[in-house]
Amino acid sequence: MTRLSTIPQHQLSITCGLCKHHTLLEVANLIAVVEGDTTAHEVRQRARWNNCGVKGNNTYQIVHKGASGVA
């Protein structure tokens, strides 16, 4: 499992399995809210969607941000 503290320059893309809502989160901002030892998988499990109320039924992908700042 990938710990957030090892990928602070990346983004976490999460998509709801039910409503297909998508969000892109800056890992550095996540670390400020949860501990750096938290894994990307744990963030995925804790994500709750406002649209449908589902929690944990989603997929995630770690997105590398290049030097240009454009993912």
Overview of the molecule:
The chain has about 70 residues and is an alpha+beta fold. The chain is about 20% helix and about 25% strand. It has 2 helices and 3 strands; from the N terminus they run ββααβ.
**Which residues sit in consecutive blocks of at least 5 with pLDDT less than 50?**
none
- Based on helices, strands and strand pairing, what is the structural class? alpha+beta
Number of DSSP strand runs: 3
What is the tally of helical segments? 2
pLDDT averaged residue by residue: 90
Distance between the termini: 22 Å
Widest sheet: strand order? 2-1-3
- The topology string of helices and strands comes to EEHHE
Q: Helicity level, as a percent range?
A: 10-25%
Rough outline: globular
Largest sheet: 3 strands, antiparallel
Quaternary organisation of the protein chains: single chain
Our estimate of the beta-strand percent is 15-25%
The rounded Rg comes to 12 Å
Quick overview:
It contains 2 helices and 3 strands, in the order ββααβ. It has 71 residues and is of the alpha+beta class. It has a 3-stranded antiparallel sheet with strand order 2-1-3.
Based on the model shown, name its key terms:
71 residues, alpha+beta, globular
Give the arrangement of secondary structure elements.
Layout: E1 11-16, E2 22-26, H1 27-33, H2 40-46, E3 58-63
Antiparallel strand pairs: 1-2, 1-3
